[in-house]
Write a structure and sequence with these properties.
The chain is an alpha+beta fold. It has one domain: Sporulation inhibitor of replication protein SirA (TATA-Binding Protein), CATH 3.30.310. Helix content is 39%, strand content 26%.
Length: 148
């Protein structure tokens, strides 16, 4: 897969943090960045802080939602806890893993087909690409894609 790949971390942010950081995305990104890159000896502290900021994900429910939405398409498959999209027509290769604290999406696209699945429930999803210092509320990308 020698292509350009992005890794997005998708967090479901608590409502009070959403209201606080809605117009201060850079601050929220910086805070999550610092938590993500804390030393291993500070992991329990980072985990404690993160758990105050996020709504834990219901892995089973999200796994089922994704599977039901995509299982009929030839470009989709699921192996264990990993969801795959290999959509040749639009040149998309993506993997999505759901964890308790966040979803981890690796993709060669700026807008993955996985984002579309969450259109009905994405109000508090904050997306970070720590490598490229990119971040946005998933609602923002939805409105950009719909306006194109």
């Amino acid at each position: 897969m020698g292509e350009f790949m992005r890794t997005f971390y998708i967090f479901n942010i608590q409502e009070e943090f959403r209201k606080t950081y809605e117009n201060q995305k850079a601050m929220l990104f910086n805070f999550l960045y610092q938590l993500y890159f804390m030393d291993k000896d500070e992991a329990s502290f980072a985990y404690h802080i993160l758990n105050q900021m996020i709504i834990p994900l219901d892995k089973s429910s999200l796994d089922n939602k994704i599977f039901i939405a995509l299982h009929r398409y030839a470009y989709y498959k699921k192996q264990g806890n990993v969801h795959y999209i290999n959509q040749v027509e639009i040149d998309e290769i993506s993997t999505l893993v759901i964890k308790r604290a966040m979803m981890k999406l690796k993709t060669n696209k700026e807008y993955s087909a996985f984002f579309k699945i969450f259109e009905d429930s994405l109000a508090n999803y904050f997306v970070c690409d720590f490598e490229y210092s990119d971040y946005f509320w998933l609602t923002e990308i939805k409105s950009i894609v719909k306006s194109e």
